[in-house]
Design a protein that fits this description.
280 residues
Amino acid sequence: MPSGLAAKEKGRLMTNLREKYGEWGIVLGATEGVGEAFCKKLAEGGMNLVMVGRREELLREKGEKFHEEYGVDYKVVRADLSCPDEACEAVFSATEGLDMGFMSYVACLHHFGKFQHTSLEDHEKMVNVNVISFLRMFHHFMNIFAAQDRGAVINVSSMTGISSSPWNAEYGAGKAYILKLTEAVACECEKTGVDVEVCTLGTTLTPTAMKNFPKGPAGEQVVKLALTPDEVADEAFEKLGKEFSIITGERNKKSVHDWKANHTEDEYIRYMGSFYADQD
């Protein structure tokens, strides 16, 4: 795109997000990967950022970068989402009195291995991050958005929430919860001023995912087919207000269609488990 058109397009996005939804957006799990890409989209759209994560210094570095490049303000909230009471208190306090217009829950926690070989403590931490903190944050900001009849939500699920995820079972179950709850709320909001979307990711080139890809040729193939965080963010924001639930990437859409049309549930589950059966 020529530079003049690019600037015009960026200006259009800035007008749309801030004017349509409000001054501030919050991203829970903002430090890197898809969360960072979502922050970039909000900043391009002129929205100030509330960036939530555990690595405060790195978040501040990223916030300064967005401030310098896009002129937006930012707040950093250090929070451990595996501790819902403390995390919610920190987030709700930091956002009190702000003109909130956007929320995205990107954060997640997983632990590889057979269900019974994972400690109950680790299961509870995953439930806290992937379900309890998510629920509390989503409920809190939806009440704000509904009261003002203005706002937007993009929550992030995973293909494992469609298929289940053997040897990563708690994670897949949490992503299924995010997927189905957000889809239902999106439908409830259809005739309001609040846009809600759930974005289901396949393999994405985030720093965390890169550490957990299969080794050898199988891992190399996964990397070739994966989307970048910016590609995910582009599609998620382009579909916001148009669709309740999206699967990012054409290959991922075709894969889900093929699984549902041509394979049994058991085949689908075994396929997903085959990637991590050696993790136990």
